[in-house]
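The instructor's notes for this session suggest beginning with a concrete chain rather than abstract definitions. Hand out the sequence below and ask the class to guess, before any prediction is shown, which regions might be ordered.
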Amino acid sequence: MTPERRNKLLSVLQKRQNNLTVVLENVFDPHNEAAVMRTCDSVGIQDIYIINNRIPPKKKWGFRSGSSAKKWLTVHHFTNPSDCFKELRNYYAKILATHLASNAVSIYDINFTESIALVFGNERFGVSDETRALADGNIVIPQCGIIQSLNISVACAITVYEAYRQKEQAGHYQQASLSVEKRDQLLNEWGFKEQDIFTEEEK
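After discussion, reveal the predicted structure:
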């Protein structure tokens, strides 16, 4: 392994965030899923959750540059929203759904330094009533155009980069978030041996 590759892996693991995740509910377009995965990887989100109870799981993940991000992420699949939320409650303090409602809060008024799971819904119908009922609240991206909606991958990118901005200012990327056990698990899944990457002083 080259020193450059080694340093890249160390940097990625150092900046992975364990208190922010994205949930996709019945997002049908594989290009959208792949784009979301690429965005999640870019801001240090390691775990993402996929709820799919309408169509069979996809074998293809969209364009190559996006689908390549999948191998670096931990993807959790569910067919039941309740089961997914039960799992989310073990790791995240708050679950927010993207939905245009009277009680929806702007993403710029959300404290993303807290532990949060963000739910994005189907391209046409959005987050389902069942899933919204399980969430702790609704969030929206402020808009002033005629069409009050954005492509799912665009909406996800805008939201998680606001989270990135807040978390970066709070210093979350300057300290390790993952546990040693989680780090070692990822290294194994990525096909690298720990002794090939870390010295004794770095463990």
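Then share the key points. Residues 17-177 form a domain with the Alpha/beta knot fold (CATH 3.40.1280.10). The first helix runs from residue 3 to 15.
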